[in-house]
Automatic annotation (TrEMBL), chain A:
Protein name as annotated: Fe-S cluster assembly ATPase SufC
Keyword tRNA-binding part of the UniProt annotation: no
PROSITE patterns for this protein: ABC_TRANSPORTER_1, ABC_TRANSPORTER_2
Protein family (similarity comment): Belongs to the ABC transporter superfamily. Ycf16 family.
Entry's transmembrane regions: none
Organism phylogeny: Bacteria, Thermotogati, Deinococcota, Deinococci, Deinococcales
InterPro entries: ABC_transporter-like_ATP-bd (IPR003439), ABC_transporter-like_CS (IPR017871), FeS-cluster_ATPase_SufC (IPR010230), P-loop_NTPase (IPR027417)
Keyword terms of this UniProt record: ATP-binding, Nucleotide-binding
Organism: Deinococcus rhizophilus
Coiled coil region boundaries: none
Residue span, ABC transporter domain: 8-250
Protein's UniProt keywords contain Lipid metabolism: no
UniProtKB/TrEMBL annotation, chain B:
Name of the gene: sufB
Residues in SUF system FeS cluster assembly SufBD core domain copies: 204-438
SUF system FeS cluster assembly SufBD N-terminal domain mapped to chain residues: 139-201
InterPro entries in UniProt: Fe-S_cluster_assembly_SufBD, SUF_FeS_clus_asmbl_SufB, SUF_FeS_clus_asmbl_SufBD_core, SUF_FeS_clus_asmbl_SufBD_sf, SufBD_N
Recorded family membership: Belongs to the iron-sulfur cluster assembly SufBD family.
SUPFAM superfamilies found in the cross-reference section: Stabilizer of iron transporter SufD
Provenance organism: Deinococcus rhizophilus
Name of protein: Fe-S cluster assembly protein SufB
Length: 256, 467
């Protein structure tokens, strides 16, 4: 395994919901150490890509492969994928009444341990204190029930808290910026940037360039009609911001 | 006596083992005047109690089996042993409890819990209390915690003043059978103003096959006093059914506060038909915390009769019904006086072909002005086969009163499972965590050790139930 590339590779991925094809041959390689932005008009497959990688049973993969560090993951349960280091920051995190964040975080950390190994108090608490500080959150938040009654901003911040606690190798952020004001956006970005380094790769899915001012991507890919139609650097995001999506839609038509 | 063969009908039930049967007295099968007389004689009772029992027996015969609730057609009352007295009973030291029986309770963790966290412990084995002890510090304050038999002997006047006043034998068929053959249970008196701040516990164990257990508990919490009483129950798993029909009577006097918690984990061959009721006086507070996990059929509706102004009653109920189980559980809040209030929170979980029903009565009599009760019942279904029903009865005779009722039925939602799985929890762990969260509002009312036990039992029931 040691000679396997440390990268997230998506190879000719086709996926559908029911009979409706949504992804029509996505190809992407994201090495660890790089964050790639995924942009594109709504309804063209950005979130589907996130859900397929994480293993949402609502979506059916009809063709293609996804490799994490050279390991094919499409046959795996979502929890096995998580334990390989894949983390999705959900666009709409669900509420789990009666389960405190603290308890949940401890169980999720425990799930990553080998049999017989326990999450120690110092490990848990040390990581928690640091994460809460980064996110400017009071410790009392972890006694609240998971996402229950949280505002949109709190839910997104809670996704980043989990990300900081679980130390994934590949993050997928699904429109984490939607519904956030500038202050919350900065806090979320600070959380992500604090993790950046040679061990972290991932996809930042967003409709707007705004988030990318704070989390500067190494590459930008544009998905239209279930395919990557354009790849470039951060300047591509700025072009979308000033010119809109009409010109990339033309690219998709040209590609057919 | 032979060691009965344990039928492997529920291999996941961890308390399904049994101990060899060795008994001082075992009445013949079935219910009769002779059996009642034999019980009374074995207990060396006063004449009034024998008369009470015999009258209750007549009432029992005169009442039909109830058909409005769970299916009781499988319960054959002629095939039950109504009285089994174990060898050696009512010890104050575990050293004096016979080895088999002591081992049983050690395997259930009772002596250890007593040392750690309890003010007093009672242990009932078959028909009799084999152990009953109260820590000295509470005894000094005048707290009484005895077997019901010793209560009758040592406090005859107090006993007679309250016995069968809250649940008379006429109340229902199972209260009548209990009144006729009652044996074991606790007698508790908490004097005025005394606050017992750690729980008293009684543990009930049925060991013999086809046996009945009819404990009777009488608890008097005097003015301004406070206490918490916990009962736990298990039985071996046999092919034939057992029958448990307790009667719990509680008197909560003015300004007193009392909580009665049950973690019922009978094996899945026990019919559990219990009458629990509290009479609550001025500004007193009664809380029932009722966890029904085991048994084949349970019919149990802890009740608060709010008799004087400002009295308050609360019932928190959790039921979990798996394959072959029917938990027909609920609550009753009856307002007799002005400005009385009640809360019922019921949470049920059903899986496989299990069925849970919420059956509750809220009654507000004329003149109980300014009274109110809120009812919230939430049901969680784990699969397509599971079933849940709600039977809320609301009777309001007073104009100036209010009753709120909210009911929800939910299924474990795929998005919740995916969310938790995406953080590394397996599908089973995810479902277990959601269920634990569902019951958390009630579990958090229990002392920590019991909340942990409740969660553990639910996890055990949950294993392999999703997917």
């Amino acid at each position: 395994m040691t000679d396997q590339p440390h990268q997230l590779e998506i190879r000719n991925l086709h996926a559908s919901v029911g009979d409706m094809p949504i992804l029509r041959g996505i190809n992407l390689v994201v090495p660890r150490g790089e964050l790639h932005a995924i942009m594109g008009p709504n309804g063209n497959g950005k979130s589907t890509l996130a859900k397929v990688i994480v293993g949402d049973p609502e979506y059916t993969v009809t063709e293609g492969e996804v490799f994490v560090d050279g390991v094919s993951i499409l046959e795996m349960e979502p929890d096995e994928r998580a334990r390989l280091g894949v983390f999705l920051a959900f666009q709409y995190p669900v509420e789990i009444p009666g389960v405190t964040i603290a308890n949940f975080l401890r169980l999720a950390m425990q799930a990553r341990k080998a049999e017989g190994e326990e999450v120690s108090f110092t490990e848990f608490y040390g990581r928690l204190t640091a994460a809460l500080k980064t996110l400017e959150w009071d410790e009392s938040i972890v006694e609240r029930y998971l996402n229950e009654g949280f505002s949109g901003g709190e839910k997104k911040r809670n996704e980043i808290l989990q990300m900081l606690m679980l130390e994934p190798n590949y993050i997928i952020m699904d429109e984490t910026d939607s519904g956030l004001d500038v202050d919350a956006l900065k806090i979320v970005a600070r959380g992500v940037n604090s993790m950046r380094g040679p061990n972290l790769g991932g996809l930042i899915i967003t409709h707007y360039q705004r988030l990318l001012n704070y989390i500067v991507p190494d590459k930008v890919h544009i998905i239209v009609d279930g395919r990557v139609v354009q790849t470039g650097g951060p300047e591509l995001a700025q072009r979308l911001d000033s010119e809109g999506y009409d010109w990339v839609k033309q690219l998709a038509v040209a590609g057919d | 006596m032979t060691n009965p063969e344990v039928a492997n009908i529920n291999k996941d039930y961890e308390y399904g083992w049994s101990s060899p049967e060795r008994y001082a007295v075992k009445a013949p099968k079935g219910l009769s005047r002779e059996v009642v007389e034999m019980i009374s004689k074995a207990k060396d009772e006063p004449q009034w109690m024998l008369d009470f029992r015999l009258k209750a027996l007549e009432i029992f015969y005169s009442k039909p089996m109830p058909t409005w609730g769970a299916d009781l057609s499988g319960l054959n009352l002629d095939e039950i042993y109504y009285y089994i007295k174990p060898e050696g009973f009512n010890a104050r030291s575990w050293d004096d409890v016979p080895d088999d029986v002591k081992l049983t309770f050690e395997r259930l963790g009772i002596p250890e819990a007593e040392r750690k966290a309890l003010a007093g412990v009672g242990a009932q084995y078959e028909s009799e209390m084999v152990y009953h002890n109260l820590k000295e510090e509470w005894e000094k304050l005048g707290v009484v915690f005895l077997s019901i038999e010793d209560g009758l002997k040592q406090y005859p006047d107090l006993f007679r003043e309250y016995f069968a006043t809250v649940v008379p034998p006429e109340d229902n068929k199972f209260a009548a059978v209990n009144s006729a053959v009652w044996s074991g249970g606790s007698f508790v008196y908490v004097p005025k103003g005394v606050k017992v701040d750690i729980p008293l516990q009684t543990y009930f164990r049925i060991n013999a096959e086809s046996s009945g257990q009819f404990e009777r508990t009488l608890i008097i919490v005097d003015e301004g006093a406070q206490a918490h009483y916990i009962e736990g129950c298990t039985a071996p798993t046999y092919a034939s059914d057992s029958f448990h029909s307790g009667v719990i009577e509680i008197i909560v006097k003015e300004g007193a506060r009392f909580r009665y918690s049950t973690i019922q984990n009978w094996s899945h061959n026990v019919y559990n038909l219990v009458t629990q009721r509290a009479a609550v006086y001025g500004h007193g507070v009664m809380e029932w915390v009722d966890g029904n996990l085991g048994s084949k059929v349970t019919m149990k509706y802890p009740a608060c009769y709010l008799l004087e102004e400002g009295a308050r009653g609360e019932v928190l109920s959790i039921a979990m019904a798996g394959r072959g189980q029917h938990q027909d559980a609920g609550a009753k809040i009856v307002h007799f006086a002005p400005y009385t209030s009640g809360t019922i929170v019921s949470k049920s979980i059903s899986k496989d072909s299990g069925r849970s029903s919420y059956r509750g009565l809220v009654k507000i009599y004329e003149g109980a002005r300014g009274s109110k009760t809120n009812v919230e019942c939430d049901a969680l279904l784990l699969d397509e086969e599971a079933r849940t029903d709600t039977y809320p009865y609301i009777e309001i005779e007073e104009k100036d009163a209010s009753v709120g009722h909210e009911a929800t039925v939910s299924k474990i939602n795929d998005e919740q499972i995916l969310y938790l799985q995406s953080r590394g929890l397996s599908e089973d762990e995810a479902a277990g965590l959601i269920v634990r969260g569902f019951i958390e509002p009630i579990a958090k009312e229990l002392p920590l050790e019991y909340a942990v036990e409740l969660n553990r039992l639910i996890e055990l029931e949950m294993e392999g139930s999703v997917g």
